[in-house]
Every structure is written in C-alpha cells, then in structure tokens.
Amino acid sequence: MVAPDFDMMPLARMSIDSLLPADSPRLAGLDHAHVRVLAESPDELPPIIVHRSTGRVIDGMHRLQAAVLHGETEVAVRLYDGDEREAFVLAVQTNIVHGLPLSLADRNAAAARIVTLYPEWSDRAIASCVGLAPKTVGAVRRRSGELGSDPGVRRGLDGRKRPVSSLEGRLTASRLLRERPNASLREIAEAAGIAPSTAMDVRNRLASGQHPVPNRPRGAVNDSSLARPRNQGHERPKPSAKTLEAALRVVRTDPSLRFNAAGRLLLRWLGAYPPGPVEWNQVVGSVPSHCVDLVVDLARRNADLLHEFAKELEERQCDHNVHIEQSRREVNQSTEFQKRVR
C-alpha cells in the first residue's frame, strides 16, 4: 500500500516500439494539451515506469508521447517487478502524487477496481492509494457488493488484519477483563483480536457501568452482567461554539505548535473553517449553481478527512495511555519482586 522508492527501481533504456500502452486509471485517456506542454519543456523529463514482465507502461504515458513528438526512439525507464494487480495500484498512486492530477471520477473508478482486486484491504488503505476519504471508499465498496473471501476481516495500512466489526471483539474483551483482572490491556487486546485502544475503551465503559459495545444495534448479544443504567453516559459532550473559539485561541498561542512547521500547518487547518452558521450562510449564497456539486464533494471529503484525523489523534492518545499503564504495571511488578527477594 506504500508506494515503492522509485530510485531503487533498476534504470534502463527501452525502445518506444517495444512498450505497451498503460493500463491507466484515467478514464478519458491522454490529455494531448498536457503532452504538448511536456514536449515543449526544456527540462529533462524523469524516467517512465514500466512493468518488467509485460513491457506495459505503468506511469508516464504523457512523457512517452512527448518523446514520440520529439522523434525519439528510446526512453529512460524504471523497471517494476510486481504483479499486474500491484502494477495497477502503483499506477494510481503515482498519478495521485505527481503529474496531471486524476479527476474525481478517475479516483472513484480506481477505488472500485482496487476493491475488486484487493477486497481484503480496508477502506482506509484503499483511500490512501486513490486520494479519497475512507467513507467514500466504503460507499464504493457497498455499491460494488464486493466483500471478499473473508468479509469479517480487512487488512489495514500497517498490513495487519482486523475485524470489520469490533462487536465480538469487544464482548470477548469484556469477558476477559472480568476473568483476568490482572492482565495488561495489550494481552487482552491480542486475545480478543482488537486494538489496545479499543480494549482500553471497553475497560473504561465497564468501569462506568456501560455496555462494552457503544451504540449497539438491535439484536446484539444481551449480557445481563454488562447492563448499565442509561443515565451513566461516557460519551464526550459536544462543545459549544464559544468553547471551540476559546480552544482555538489556546492552541494558536501554544509555542509547541507555533514554532514548528507541522504545528503551523495544523493551526492553518483548524483556523480555515467558518466558526458558525452566520458565516456559512454568507458563503453558501456566493457559490454559483454550476459549482455546487463540486463544492459539496470537496466539503464532504474535507469533513471526512478531518473526522479521520480526529479519530487518529484519539487512537494515538489511547495507545499512549496504554503504554503508560503498561510501564506503570511493569514498575509495580518489579518493585513487588524486589520486595519478595529482600
């Protein structure tokens, strides 16, 4: 899912006549205006990427046609050794990060094809390849009806397999937490097949009298030992507009964010959105009707990406808390051992 290092691919020169056209993610084919722009460029163009076993172009059809316009008979190439499925994914990844951008229709079509090629990949893993939000990939998957050979499991960005639904894992974790109260969260998470952050959430829910499965669907397993009063909520309250404005003022003055490039980028993200409906109404009226669909798609994608960003931050904090707890547990165990030795 991570694009290979192009500089590590073998460099060679190949006859243009020996190359096959790309299995391109571009629905409209070549952009001849872009070919002319490349042909007129005084700079040396980077090598194209070619699938070694088939001779098919993976990335660089516009550069190849620019070379043809120059009357060249050979081009510099980087040779890729993966299979044809991997070659298509690489073609999408390379067209996302450089060159002429893929259109929204191109990226949706590429997502649909990758869902078919790799049904076991998670929505987030495919989204990282095609430049879409994970929720958009999920919608593409549902339309395609492709669930894979094991529809209960998906492979994530880190290569690990995880259940699509954590319901069973959460119930297993809740049982293990009662049966093995001295076990670490990492041990519980590994035994239940869930992330340590999910195991921590299960433990916190049990401690506050909640069911281990948030917003459990109708018909879910009803374990009376896990029942809790309805008024003992554990969900994060929705902050008011004034609270959010105050939070933004705090983070904008935090030197750990202001004085590094990544922090300043984050502050620009957080401050780029209107604080309330009044500003929204002013902007809504200014969007021309022929741009509405495009703006809606972009706004929803940005919202989905920010939601995923917030989720990543929460999971990182949970993992950090798990690590702190594990370290504290190891220190306590070491102290107890030393006391017994004495």
TrEMBL record:
Biased composition (Basic and acidic residues): 152-161
Identification of the protein by name: ParB-like nuclease family protein
Annotated region described as Disordered, given as residue ranges: 143-165, 207-240
Classification lineage: Bacteria, Bacillati, Actinomycetota, Actinomycetes, Pseudonocardiales
Ranges in coiled-coil conformation: none
Annotated ranges, domain ParB-like N-terminal: 12-96
Signal peptide: none
